[in-house]
Write the structure tokens for this entry.
Amino acid sequence: MRRVFIWPAAAIGAAALVTFPYWTAEWESSRFATTVLRDILVFAIFALSLDLLVGRGGMPSLGHAAFFGAGAYAAGVATQRLGTDQLPLTLGAAALVAAALALLIGTLVVRSEGIFFLMLTLAFAQIVFAIAFQWTSVTGGSNGLAGIARPFLGGIDLNPPDRMYVLVSATFLAVVLLVRAVAGSPYGRVLVGIRENERRMRALGYDTARIRLSAFVLAGSIAGIAGALSAYSLRFVSAQDVGIGTSIRAFVMVLVGGAGTLAGPVIGAAVVLYVERILSSAVPVAETVLGLLFVAFVLLARQGIVGIGGAAWARMRR
Amino acid sequence: MGSDAPLIEVHELSRSFGGIRALDSVSFAVQSGERRAVIGPNGAGKTTLFNVLTGEIAPSGGSVRVAGDDITRLRPWQRARRGIARMYQRNELFAPLAARENVALAVSARAGPYRFVGTPSPAESAFADELLTRVGLAGREGVPARALSHGERRQLELAVALAQNPRVLLLDEPTAGMSPAETARITELIAGLDRTLTIVIVEHDMDVVFRLADRVSVLHEGRVIADGTAADVRGDTRVNEVYLGKVVVR
């Protein structure tokens, strides 16, 4: 019986999410809340893409910001230099540039595992950071790219904050559905097989290096879309978007929320941005709290918030 | 190559680890449909031989041919696609996945990994359940591999290898760590497999070896010291000296 209500409830929830700025218009802090929610959703997309690697494929990347940043720069450069403000073109360019970079880096890292994978992805992301920081003519160097114009979708100007929010939240929902479908597909099960026992997967006839590369490229292109949405939202791209700080934030989101789940990265993004944007203005040591929280989850609750919630739910039903 | 060519042809295969020659110019041939046992004391190079046959370890010299094709340079997954399956000595399973899912991953390898839409096919699950019943795991299909007993995991290990629908089945000590009753069960199970399937089996239990094998190769310090029918090998004095004699003493 209960299953019958899941889809209508999800549809209502999705509609409420996308129309958030409109039904909260009367609230005093509606604009602020919309902005925070928008940024949470941008990072939720980014964290969901990272979780394809960390949670599903067992590839702990500490360089995922390279693709986020590549997408952000690509979207910014596309609108500033290529003279196009059409969303499909700039967002498509962002996804393509990020995918191409992921193909390049992925080819070099997918044969390594565990801590070596972690260090290699970090090293390559640092190279991308150095390029972003020094290639001033394209990236603006340390100044970054400021004043990025928000795109058009056909004749619809996405510049108003409410519309920008709708773009982000609709893209977020699309990514959730995509990741859900991939995770539940035969391909998703193959990724889990590689995570659990790559040696056996090879012995079963799976070209595991290539499969891992395909996941790396898929995750990279979704991260690129998140980066482009960040560039549109903030109207600014800086080398920080490619930096290790951005990679670590996404990693923290995945682990705190719960790796290998659909809700985990989203909850993680909400927790991290809540601490950074809201708690930090009330509590002076909020960032330290975030660090301690992360350590606590790594040591005590590897399954993240979703894991804790699931265990509590199971106990209640018993 | 004609159809008379052996299915597996190992030619002067060598592999050293540091100063130790794990395989020292090993040559032998296995005919299609044959059941070959490889025996020898611990450290004789049996598992290294399997690792070289499946491509997990590169040989320092020599070649491996399957059905006339040189596969020495192929990667493990490419060899699996050519019909080589292996039952590992130490179970290599997908611990958190149900027994059914373990087998289904082997079944679905043929359909390819890049299926992004839809759910894993019910036909694959049904075939997996069939195989699990064959190896004696009926009723345990939904149990995660890590929750199975040691004997059950060995059975699952065999089901996964069989699910690949191989031409060549490499069995690395299939009865290791099993109770006598489980050993008898799995031995009869292997004995009852399709006679067109070529089997190479590494085993310490001589009852199992003589029950299953048409021919026996004896490895000692990385060399083949005897190669013949089960009866020949039993009568070989040198084999008795290095290996069988010790078993009797034990």
Remarks:
- The mean pLDDT of chain A is 90.
